[in-house]
Amino acid sequence: MKYDVVIIGAGPAGSIAAEKLSASGYKTLIIDPCNKKKICAGVLTAQYARKYEVNENYVERKIKGVRLSFKGIKGEISYRNTVEYSINRDSFDAFNLARAVNNGSELKKNLVLSINEKDSCVMIQTEKDIVLADYAIIAAGVSELSQLYGGTKQYAYCTQQVKYREPGDFFEMDLFPGGYSWIVPKKDNVVSGTSSDKGYPDIPGERGLIPINGPVKRTFSNRTLLAGDAAGFVSPFDGEGIYYARRSGEIAAQTLSRAISGNNPLSEYENIWKSEFDFLSMAKISRLLSNNTILEAFVREIKDNERFNKVVEDILTKEIDKNKTGYIFSLIRKLI
Ligand SMILES: Cc1cc2nc3c(=O)[nH]c(=O)nc-3n(C[C@H](O)[C@H](O)[C@H](O)COP(=O)(O)OP(=O)(O)OC[C@H]3O[C@@H](n4cnc5c(N)ncnc54)[C@H](O)[C@@H]3O)c2cc1C
């Protein structure tokens, strides 16, 4: 049997793509062994909450703002118009996958070993069988499989653990050049983690990788699309990836619907996400803040300068008007 679309990976990118395609009547299969715990701080950002419904099944706590610190200087940003959510990541992924299956997507709990693109179809070799499809979406996150098919290869290394501490309502970030530590409040405890671009921090905990270099050069071929982490869709500034995974999964589904029904080229995918995702600005801010002097002044201004505080809130909650990014860079540069 041949599928219209096979999706590899049931994270936020793959599950939403499967949900959208199966709801539109396409014969859709999602393949994931579903046997790995996802290492994630579990913050559904303001950007996510503005666009998507958030379900109480996986929410652990509302987040009211962020506390930033650098070398003992502490700045606090209370969100004015927005809220973020701390979630249980396993429940979130299970919820999204269930929606895909309820909409008619087939699920194979299996590992994909290789993907072979032919003129007339895509051949997907799993541990147990070979599956044929007209198109495939590679949404296998940071994995050997994604890497084999053009996926991202440069990461920040993260270690995180649960700590039994009274949770607050703020997301806490301790900044240092080349990384940061975080504390995310959960229902009854907190998750604490550290990321570094130089290798796994030498602290106990579970390990995970975050793509940091922005999108890969090419996210489409004749019959496959790369979505989510596999494509490098993570903000280089703050490591936000769930929103981009979900949104790229939606764009991938939309592109493939148009390819199946109208023979449209898969290059449409790249045109759409490039018009929406502004990773360049995020990378630029991140580069500016890799300088110790700027970073120190940045946190001090957040603490002392209300106007600057609001600008950083806009950056963190992604409420930046693309036309105003020049103004933001000039503000940060003036800190030197
Ligand atoms: C420590 C840490 C903290 C983070 N915190 C946040 C945060 O607070 N907020 C935020 O927005 N982002 C955060 N991120 C980033 C976020 O987790 C990712 O951007 C997001 O999960 C990407 O979704 P995805 O669907 O692309 O991939 P994933 O969620 O990684 O899903 C990929 C799926 O593919 C499957 N898979 C892999 N290989 C194969 C194969 N060969 N065959 C079949 N299936 C396969 C896996 O089992 C997995 O289920 C964090 C990341 C890390 C490492």
UniProtKB/TrEMBL annotation:
GO terms for molecular function: oxidoreductase activity. Gene3D superfamilies: FAD/NAD(P)-binding domain. Coiled coil: none annotated. Residues 3-149 form the FAD/NAD(P)-binding domain. Pfam families: Pyr_redox_2. PANTHER family: CONDITIONED MEDIUM FACTOR RECEPTOR 1, GERANYLGERANYL DIPHOSPHATE REDUCTASE. This is Geranylgeranyl reductase.
